[in-house]
Amino acid sequence: MILDNGAEVIIGLEVHVELATRTKLFCACPSAFGAPPNTAVCPVCLGLPGALPQLNREVVRLAARAGLALGCEVRLTSRFDRKNYFYPDLPKGYQITQYEHPICEWGALEVPLADDAVRRVAIRRIHIEEEAGKLIHEGDSLWGATGSLVDLNRAGLPLIEIVTEPDLRSPEEARRFLRELVSVLSYLDVSDLRMEEGSIRCDANLSLKPPGFSGALEDLARVEVKNVNSIRNVVAALESEVKRQRAVLDAGGRVERETRGFDEGTGTTLPQRSKEAANDYRYFPEPDLPVLMLDPSVVEAERERLPVLPPALRAELVGRGLTSKEAAVIASDPGASRYLARVLAEGADTRLAVTWMLGDLARLLNEAHVGYGASPVGPAALAELLQLMAQGTLSGRLAKEVLDRMFATGHSAAAIVEDTGMAQISDQDVLATEVDRALAQHPAAVADYRAGKAAALGFLVGQVMKATRGQASPDVVNRLLRERLAALAPSS
Ligand code: ADP
Ligand code: MG
Ligand code: ZN
Known about the structure:
By secondary structure, this protein is of the alpha+beta class. It contains 15 helices and 16 strands. The site of adenosine-5'-diphosphate has 17 residues, from strand 1, strand 10 and strand 11.
């Protein structure tokens, strides 16, 4: 994105993803969300003197898994460091993180943009770190708070931080990057990815590169908007930063390197503090934990266990005849792609399956707020419905009605057709009787048709459909009507 003054928008993201483990990063406390305050705590995560951390093996596996999925190199040797700072949600006075030697480095995510373009975003690093506790402020606003409460249930939960290179060029690209990242992660079972519970949060960095600037992007004064908790807010924060920095430059000012926060109320960013430098944190190697050494076989085993991920899946689906839009929608959601795979495994036609999955089934799932994985109409049940259509037992219109009932009752398509007698009537003799009746009852329409008004045919088809409660096969009715009308003596 190049602004009209020639400046280019430069964005890099740091994405924090809470890992879905049963227990915390360095202690055996459960990672239960929503437990009563300060019940999931122990001397380690309370930071009591003398308590020693012990690394959770599962966290290492999940971090390596995420790194492999993002094409990173997984380091066989990495290390934990202390990041020292004071805040009431951090009882130890430091956060254990990986600073100099992160577990994963140098990956990339190919982000689909509009018109089949792709932006390759390099992943600089992925490191493991612990979560801080949660502060709850009493009163109307943070500034007017009458008191603050600390809940340390969250303290010590495992996170990975995924840091990109400054490769994104617009808030829209950032949105697409985050969407793609979330869909890749959703295939890995590494995180619940629940935004509203804070399991994924983002620090968004943005600078404006002046035309003709040829230095390193790292040297541009960037603003870091901290702790933004949804994709929509990241985009809003970045858009408002573009405007704000642009205005500062237009007024002849200089953008300060600083940390800002996003205010959801106004949709703008607010200054928090001038940017801290790394040495403000007095990073040093964590003396209570040994160097983290991985056996190469562990990493290889994890690589073997990676599922097919969205980029490969999209290519495969397009190869099966889906449009790139359809493939993108299905591949973005593991529930949807597993569902489709199972419908097709039942022998359903691909085009029919995709049309119904993304059409009527999607509508019902949306209304019920459930995903494909929890659909009351399972893949085999949908395949059966499609089969009844393919063999002519159900018209599209009837099938829609049957699907609604299947969704509401959990009954099979065959059972519903049987119970309600909703099958399509293709029986020539039955339909011929109905066609003759319609012709006899509507002589005016017959006359119109013979006088050249083609639309009268549609009216007559409609009459037969009505008489059969929509169950007549429109194809057969059409053919019979045309035959009958053609057989009448030509009108004078
Ligand atoms: P810090 O610890 O200050 O947050 P990091 O090195 O962890 O710094 O993260 C730097 C982040 O800033 C990365 O995501 C990187 O892509 C991004 N970044 C670096 N230079 C720029 C720039 N000129 N404009 C926007 N983002 C940038
Ligand atoms: Mg940062
Ligand atoms: Zn604990």
